[in-house]
Amino acid sequence: MRALLVIDVQNGIVEFGDFNEEISLMEKVIQDFKENDEPVIFIRHLDDEKESPLYKKGDGSELHNSLSQYPDHVIEKQTPSAFFKTELSSLLEELEVDHLFITGFNTEFCCQFTAIAAYDRGFKVTFIEDATGTVNNDETYEMKGLDIRDFVGTVLHWSDVIEVLDFEEYEDEY
Known about the structure:
six-stranded parallel sheet
């Protein structure tokens, strides 16, 4: 069975920029999974530090209202991997999931770490590149012209173990 992971679509991230296009694509993928009665699992990052935009007791840690009506399950995490010290593995086993689709924020951290961790646990993984987003840019990494989504997608694609698609390819394939 397939399942969709929607990673860290929370107020504290979405408010950092204009992510309308990414959220629109995430919603289309979510609706596809809903129509097929396949699980939609939201991952929520919670930080202990009050200064964090994802502070566990602040509004920033709440799921963004644009997609908050969709989760079948919500898993809370405190590291970039949705698997590390969470109930995600046991939930996926219970649901008999063998193929995970990755969308959400931040492309180069939580989405990438979770995709690799899923592969390491034996899942087939599909990373929908343009249905991920990041608050970072080329200046963050001091790498002029860096397209973070494209870079991460290329690295994962070259691994030959994680399928990387853009939304149009996802629509054609699945």
